[in-house]
Amino acid sequence: MRNGSEDKPSSEMYKRIGRVLRQKRKASGKILEDFANDDISTSTISNIERGSTKVSWEKVVIYAKELGITEDELPSLLEGEQDQQQRLLNQLLNLERRIDLEGPDQVLKKINRLNIPSISPLMANVEYLKGRCYLKKKNWGKARLHFHQVLNIIKRYPDFHKTNLKAACHKDLARTYYFQENDLVKALDHVNLGLRSLITKSESQTEYSLLIGKISYLINLDQETETAKKTVDKLWDERDKIYSIDAKISLHENRAALLNKMELYEEARESASEGISLALKNNILDRAVELLNTYGSICINEQDFDQAEEYFLLALDTKPKIQKKYQKEYLLVTTLTLLGKLYKAQGHTTKAEKALLEAVELGKKTKSQEVLRYHDALVALGDCYFSKNKLRKAIAPYSQALEIAKIQSQAHKKFFWVEKEHELWVKLGMCYEKFDSEKLKLCMERSFRFNVEYIKRGGGEYMDKQFSSKILLHIGEPPDNRSTSLEGEPPDNLI
């Protein structure tokens, strides 16, 4: 175990031995006091099991003997633990692959049947896998708790350096904030933490997923267009190295959305078209719908209304499969909203109203999954009524959208929803201006308060963005490709 009798094992070796001896004691069903005697105290045994280097090697050997282990047997015992940890790691990797095949509930049951000691560093992998299961179940809160638990475990093992588990955790934490609260700022913060946490550059797939997620959050935040463009260009050049089909599709969608925003419509169409083909080729219909929506929004901005309609109607044709296989009908709320805006731009107000009423009805049905899409459908319907001078009819959808924005801004304290709230006070004021001076006054007061708060926060180009006629689609989900963070050998110093 030592290179000469005077050499002391490393601190990591102390930790490994301490964990193994603790597991042996636990397996015997005895407590610390059962092994204390004149040669070794209870506190010394506790320090040994915690891997403290303050304890002399002689005391470690004494305690090992109390457990029936000689000094010469310690190396083989550690090797056996290494093999066992590798087997457990392989089991966890296999279970991760089964989340999509068997469903998260079955995998959670199998995880709970695994015999992994609570003191094992592999508990970080166990917690991560549980988090992935709850992500699949769309239980964002529980997923987040497990991912934070992973980060807490990793803090106790700073040399957890042969995997990118920490980076993968931040990637998935970003997704929980994106989906549960639409908190794009926190999502972006976690992506940046994940990128800073990348250690093993050989695991580039996690880096690709983080970067693609970063682009998505930047575009939706309408921030750092140049940063997003540079990142997109880098990934686009390396897209053949990205293994995950889902990540590749997300890259195509993000690139198309960004180019659409930059008014580079020909390149945007090309990127969206390639993404649609990739999604359909791999039978990933939900991602195809998102890209069809993206392609249609590009066509609207180019005034190519006929082709835009063609792509939106193609997306709507997927409804039976989207409903049955993916349970993602909410994707079509965006399709119908965009179709309604298209008809409105063409002057087909009756068709526009019909499409938007359908979008609102579907949005109401699926609002628990995607409240933002429901909100946007309500606003679009109100805009449609307003354009037809049906001011009293516009008030109802505007008011419903306002209630959503108020609830979300109060629940999550995010300026994103406060901005939405302000936009609706302005729109309602434009309606009440014609027939209700008292309510107009209320709308003006609320709008004034917003502007004061906004100036305190630094101001900006908010009003220009809110009333722009350009269609800038709030792009879809960041990539959910299976992380490879559980792969590879367990680090020697973790067991």
Automatic annotation (TrEMBL):
One short Pfam name that applies is: TPR_8
Q: What terms describe the molecular function in GO for this protein?
A: DNA binding
HTH cro/C1-type domain location, by residue? 21-74
Superkingdom to which the source organism belongs: Bacteria
Q: Which UniProt keywords apply?
A: TPR repeat
UniProt repeat feature TPR, residue ranges: 289-322, 375-408
Instruction: State the protein's name.
Output: HTH cro/C1-type domain-containing protein
Organism the protein comes from: Thermoflavimicrobium daqui
